[in-house]
Design a protein that fits this description.
By secondary structure, the protein is an alpha/beta fold. It is built from 12 helices and 21 strands. The strands form 3 sheets. Strands 4, 14, 15, 16, 17, 18, 19, 20 and 21 form a 9-stranded mixed β-sheet that branches. An 8-stranded parallel beta barrel has the order 5-6-7-8-9-11-12-13, surrounded by 5 helices. Strands 1-2-3 form a 3-stranded antiparallel β-sheet. It is globular and about 70 Å long.
């Protein structure tokens, strides 16, 4: 469920008309619903109760300060994958003890900054990283809390570019080698082993891969405890999918996912961490665009929008589907017609949808891309010298620009002229 609904024939974000925002900030833009973000976070809280747990929002899905602040105020932790995200989470008011640092390529300088500023744990992905962290923490006279990310070789049955738990993926260490690596970690200075980490992929719409992976983690927990390790925390990752196509069957609910966690690892007495991103932020955001032209081709008609692949790259990069709806609700008897929906970037790949059924459209009409809150704004670029589009947040009947569109002068002045020119 989200809070983007038609009222009196006009699409609203909570109590604010989308057309009102468009008139104020221009198009294209992203808009997020506070009520949807908060509702989705609370669904996970309910799903994991009464287990001891921490829900760490995967900031890579939607990293705006206001979004992170909204969730942090509810008690959320944050899963970060760079020191930039770490610093932004701290700027949003999330304390270090609620920040988990993931990612395969942490540098020594990133480790140093996180240790100095406070960190809940590092999710260590390799032996070289483990040795580097030991050196950095020891040099600072500190002990780094860690989990080790194990790769359970489970097929998440998701898109190949967002699968992370198979043996050919770059993430984690093979679960078959886990006991040896944990034994090595226990000998290192500056290292405090606190638990196990696993994450098998994103946009999962089947709970079976989760159950398979978590059962392996449960077995590993028992083995490591028998080896003398104090395993007290299980980071089970994220990855639960959202319904990008409203016509398809809905993915499992957080309550169902929580039942899998309780069934597989709930008897171990561990604190459970999860790292949802997409399911919290995805349906909490729209991208809104305006039709520039309706172009009639020889075999099809094109809607040429003012948004492009640089603003929302998921369709071009992943072949991803987003429901696209008119901001003004069509009359009930309106007959839809097919359009290829494209942007103005000079690449054929700048295509959002082919032969998508919409009511008859004309230049100036507004359209909204649903489920655009995750991996939308954060993956945007200024390709073709196109400004990053604004982000807007709505809270009931209020809205605010939470990232402004840069001017062309601001974009140009970021460059420096070489002294010999």
């Amino acid at each position: 469920m989200d809070h983007f609904l038609y009222r009196d024939g006009a699409l609203h974000a909570e109590d604010v008309a989308i057309a009102e925002i468009a008139a104020s900030v221009g198009t294209p833009f992203y808009v997020y619903s506070t009520a949807t973000l908060e509702r989705h976070y609370r669904l996970f809280e309910e799903a994991l109760s009464p287990l001891p747990h921490l829900i760490c929002f995967a900031m890579k899905s939607c990293g705006n300060l206001s979004v992170v602040k909204t969730l942090g105020a509810l008690g959320a932790g944050v899963d970060v994958v760079s020191i930039g995200e770490y610093l932004k989470a701290k700027a949003a008011g999330v304390p270090g003890e609620r920040i988990v640092f993931s990612g395969v390529g942490k540098t020594r300088e990133e480790m140093r900054v996180a240790l100095d500023g406070g960190i809940r744990q590092f999710n260590v992905e390799s032996e070289p990283e483990l040795f580097a962290l030991s050196e950095v923490a020891s040099s600072m006279g500190l002990s780094a809390p860690i989990t080790i990310r194990v790769n359970p070789d489970v097929d998440a049955k998701t898109h190949e570019k967002i699968a992370t738990g198979k043996k050919e993926n770059k993430f984690g260490i093979p679960i078959s080698r886990a006991r040896a690596v944990y034994a090595e970690a226990a000998k290192l200075n500056g290292i405090d082993v606190v638990g196990i980490d696993v994450h098998i992929g994103s946009q999962l719409v089947d709970l079976v891969p989760f159950e398979e992976a978590y059962l392996k983690v449960a077995d590993l927990t028992r083995q490591l405890r028998a080896d003398g390790h104090d395993i007290r925390r299980l980071d089970l990752g994220g990855g639960l999918g959202i319904p990008y196509e409203r016509s398809n069957a809905a993915p499992p609910l957080p309550l169902d996912y929580g039942a899998v966690i309780k069934r597989t690892v709930g008897d171990l007495g561990c604190e459970v961490e999860i790292e949802p991103g997409r399911l919290i932020s995805g349906n909490a955001g729209l991208m809104v665009s305006r039709v520039i032209y309706v172009k009639s081709g020889e075999e099809r008609d094109f809607l040429i929008l003012d948004a492009a692949m640089n603003d929302l790259i998921r369709p071009s990069m992943y072949g991803a589907h987003h429901d696209i709806v008119p901001v003004i609700e069509p009359a009930p008897a309106t007959l839809p017609q097919p359009y290829d929906i494209v942007g103005p970037v000079c690449e054929t790949g700048d295509t959002f949808a082919k032969q998508r059924a919409l009511p008859p459209m004309q230049a100036g009409d507004l359209v909204a891309f649903r489920s655009a809150g995750a991996y939308g704004a954060v993956m945007a670029s200024e390709y073709n010298m196109r400004p990053l589009i604004p982000e807007v947040m709505v809270n009931q009947d209020q809205f605010a620009v939470i990232r402004a569109r840069p001017t062309y002068d601001e974009m140009i002045n970021r460059d420096s002229m070489a002294p010999w020119l």
